[in-house]
Amino acid sequence: xxxxxxxxxxxxxxxxxxxxxxxxxxxxxxxxxxxxxxxxxxxxxxxxxxxxxxxxxxxxxxxxxxxxxxxxxxxxx
Amino acid sequence: xxxxxxxxxxxxxxxxxxxxxxxxxxxxxxxxxxxxxxxxxxxxxxxxxxxxxxxxxxxxxxxxxxxxxxxxxxxxxxxxxxxxxxxxxxxxxxxxxxxxxxxxxxxxxxxxxxxxxxxxxxxxxxxxxxxxxx
Lengths: 77, 134
Hints:
The complex is a heterodimer. By secondary structure, chain A is of the alpha+beta class. Chain A has a single domain (2-76), classed as Glutaredoxin, CATH 3.40.30.
């Protein structure tokens, strides 16, 4: 599973990244977590509000910090 | 040309998916009470919600009750198992969406005024992670 956190590095982006790391750890799943902070790539991905979360290329969250409980549900599919 | 994405930092109430939260620290006088205040202010600085005085809630202020009614979530940060903040909310008939008890995060209550940034960070992280969701 490939998880991407898209954002330019504000506090909310950092919090979302941390929550993703906790969710992955608590689920015990194998996942590649990538931080995307390049503004051009974020624009090209069609993100209008950061922070955003993509799982295997599909945008799941935009413009807010999802908490661990919600992230675990998203990652469980 | 694609427009620049908007960052959702600061007040999230106006953006899609953002939640309007009111945060009440217990504001006790032991270390954990002081940490509750510091954590609430840091959460406010990070755009998580608005830090508000628990004493105002206890006074049944009508303006505050209106703001609570308009909010999406109420977050109570209590320092210790006495859970004074949650009890005040309960007495006022306010439903709590997230309740964090600082001692449950492994921070001992001592009647001192000293606390560390790491302790505040532990509480702030718990709120962002939703550890106190009811």
